[in-house]
Amino acid sequence: MTNPSYEPPGTGTGRYGGALFAPGMLVPFILVTSLFFLWGVPNNLNDVLIRQFMKSFSITRLQAGLVQSAFYMGYFLLALPSALYMRKFGYKTGFVTGLGLFGIGAFLFWPAANVGRYSFFLFALFVMASGLAFLETASNTFIVLAGSPETAERRLNFSQAFNPLGSITGALAGTAFIFSGIQLSESEVQKMQAAHRYQAYLHFEILRVVHPYMVLGLVAVGIALIMWATPFPVMRDEQDAVAHPSTKIFALLKNRHLVFSIIAQFFYVGAQVGTWSYFIQYIQAYTGQPDKNAGYLLTGTLAMFAVGRFASAAMMKYIHPSTLMGCYCLINVVLVAIAVLHPGWQGVWTLFFTSFFMSLMYPTIFALGLRGMGADSKVGGSLIVMAIIGGAVLTPLMGIVADLSNSIAYAYLVPLFGYICISLYSFFGQGVPATKAA
């Protein structure tokens, strides 16, 4: 049946104002918001890992893209189980479980580096992402339900604004502590091989990834202990779950608004992950900059992403979220098209600024998709989180396009198509109100 609380899109000037979160929610709101920062760190360490593993394991762009595939496959496979787990045991247990898995995956980087096997690293990333599936499903849904439905998109954009701050931290840490700054020429590689020193050099490069992940693991364990000691309120969906039995997943998928949101999220995550994953390589291919300089430019575009999140959260007080998102998508279509057609510094700077305009998309799609879900919010949220598989699909697809065309610029046609799809969702997908499955 149609959800009576659903409001169709509008453009009032004061309509989307109001309190950001409900009374008594301050401490849980702060703790959960801190998690958005935490998982931003490994998300963008992956961009550094791709370049580092290409160097230390001598692999192709497509093989290196498996870093994102392993990472986002963890999200895809664990999102729904995590929602069912939290439906039974609650948000706090989900947070602690997710942080535990995240910490274990981070600690696995030490034996992976000592063994020196690429597949071991991919397994560690999968375990980390499995924990993040718990955290993202719980955190996004918790924040959406932490106050008035009218301010859900603004509230989630505010909390998500701390995610790019974590991304910046991850990119800076990776650039400073993982990239060695050593760029060997072919002749230097041959000399080291002749002297039987090349394998030792590659092992040195592999070991550089260990320390940042050990720190991440310790931070995750610390936050888990704080979460466990903090009282958490009973949320609206948990109250609804007592009064209403859970809806079957296939019944939820009859909700066209939810399905449109899942599809839009698939293309958004693929566009975002692909854009950042190949940004360093785009810079090096068309400007000749070393990896450290390219890494700092990646950090700069992540800063634009953070600015965009805070700015968008403020603008949503006056502009309907879906309208703002649609306009941002069209701007990014133009910017990415320039990067495809004019590779070089012009293309670098247009890609640089796409981060500002992509910033509001994930939280806005998520919040719009959960409108009217009630007791099914966790499961509905998990289905949207599963759309993160877009990062595992579209990033290797970009690698395939780059290898076949011998052009990283042409690879950016993939995220360009993604922004076109999200713009259609923004302007036309909101005509279908959220409904609770019967």
**What is the distance, rounded to the nearest whole angstrom, between the alpha carbons of the first and last residues?**
6 Å
Number of helices in the DSSP assignment: 23
- In percent, how much strand structure appears in the residues? under 5%
Tally of individual domains: 1
The CATH architecture is: Up-down Bundle
The Rg value, from CA coordinates, equals 21 Å
| CATH class group | Mainly Alpha
Number of strands: 0
Largest sheet geometry: none
Overall form: globular
H and E string:
HHHHHHHHHHHHHHHHHHHHHHH
Task: Give the integer mean of the pLDDT values.
Answer: 84
**For the record, what is the CATH homologous superfamily label?**
MFS general substrate transporter like domains
Could you say what the CATH topology is called?
Answer: Growth Hormone, Chain: A
How much helical structure, as a percent, in the residues? over 70%
- The chain-level structural class is mainly alpha
Explain the layout of strands and helices.
Layout: H1 26-56, H2 61-64, H3 66-89, H4 91-107, H5 109-115, H6 118-144, H7 152-160, H8 163-178, H9 186-194, H10 198-207, H11 210-229, H12 236-243, H13 249-252, H14 256-277, H15 279-287, H16 291-315, H17 321-341, H18 345-358, H19 361-369, H20 377-386, H21 389-405, H22 408-411, H23 413-428
The gist of it:
The chain is mostly helical. The chain has a single domain, classed as Up-down Bundle (Growth Hormone, Chain: A).
